Amino acid sequence: MDELHWQSLAVRSGITRSPEGEHSEALFMTSSYVFDSAEHAAARFTGDDPGNVYSRYTNPTVRGFEDRLAALEGAEACVATASGMSAILSTCMALLKAGDHVVCSRDVFGTTRTLFAKYMANFGVEVSFVPLLPVDGWREAMQDNTKLLYLETPSNPLCEIADMQSMATLAQSAGALLVVDNCFCSPALQQPLAFGADIVIHSATKYLDGQGRCVGGAVLGNQDLMDQVLGFLRSCGPTMSAFNAWVFLKGLETLSLRMEAHSASAMQLATWLQSHPQVEAVFYAGLESHPGHALAKKQQSAFGGVLSFRVRGAQAEAWQVIDATRLMSLTANLGDAKTTVVHPATTTHSRISANERLEAGITDNLIRVAVGLENIEDLKADLARGLNSLG
Ligand SMILES: *Cc1c(COP(=O)(O)O)cnc(C)c1O
């Protein structure tokens, strides 16, 4: 298996065939497992026999998804979780304790910010938020008790790119762990562990599923770290359901084809938007004008499906463009075959102060599009309807 190329691993790894000889991955819908004898049960419970006990601990379908995703991220081990948020929570609960300090990018998923700012803080974990760029800001925020650096690259919604190698060097120098949420790129486009990250986080809900059906997540890293995360899951319970793992296994088979298509369409849409007279600025790392373009080229094999742009005007004009769409779905989700459009300032980023929004570049005239798999001409026409009405 190790010698196979990435696309082959996406289809072939993580399969354990049952005695029925099924070709597609089997869906093991069972909460518990039976033992041959009392002695056998005892051995399972002590761990001397490594087999299944209970599906909060292990499930063959979930393990298939974990093994396949681990192969695709180049990770020693993977722990599947009930959602992307529980992947982050499990990582924190397993690896942090009261009195520890975390430095987190300001430009992360809104709920991730709440998890750190409210819930981790409630349990005595100190958190500092810094802009994703530059690295110096992170260095200045670090303390003697800093245990974890947390970021997303590309960032949402402005597609800023972090230099993962520099961040890994910084983390290492302080004995801290670098955690990268790889949701936007998926392992088809970027493998953070290869750039020195210690842990990769996924919301499987997004591109790993790819069709907006199931909620799930994953944590990846070396065996020792993942044993600690698995320990938390076993005792505290946010495990992935077997059914969702089965859906994600199917999603992984087509991941590279979909990410190529998302990226190609996003590139075309970004280029077209850049030339539109009613568009003030476009944020997409695939554009040569983007400050993170060279770094994105080094770290990613393509630029992904998410872009944002500023229309000429303010909130009213942005809303006009969004409300004129008929094809795109007005929803904050992303990573779907269906293109989604959202106004970050009044939705995904509405809970942070107006000042913080401005600092982060989330202006009132900004629109985010997560490009799906529809025909690109239909997507252009959908945005052109509103944009042309602004002039
Ligand atoms: C959606 C998302 C999450 C949270 O994942 P859920 O599966 O919704 O819990 C975390 N990080 C990023 C970047 C996301 O887009």
TrEMBL record:
Belongs to the trans-sulfuration enzymes family. MetZ subfamily. Its EC number is 2.5.1.-. Homotetramer. Gene3D superfamilies: Aspartate Aminotransferase, domain 1, Type I PLP-dependent aspartate aminotransferase-like (Major domain). Signal peptide: none annotated. It catalyses: O-succinyl-L-homoserine + hydrogen sulfide = L-homocysteine + succinate. Keywords: Amino-acid biosynthesis, Lyase, Methionine biosynthesis, Pyridoxal phosphate, Transferase. GO terms for molecular function: lyase activity. It is an enzyme of class 2 (transferase). NCBIfam families: O_suc_HS_sulf, PRK08133.1. Pfam families: Cys_Met_Meta_PP. It comes from Congregibacter brevis. The gene is metZ. InterPro entries: Cys/Met-Metab_PyrdxlP-dep_enz, Cys_met_metab_PP, O-succ-hSer_sulfhydrylase, PyrdxlP-dep_Trfase, PyrdxlP-dep_Trfase_major, PyrdxlP-dep_Trfase_small. Pathway: Amino-acid biosynthesis; L-methionine biosynthesis via de novo pathway; L-homocysteine from O-succinyl-L-homoserine: step 1/1. This is O-succinylhomoserine sulfhydrylase.
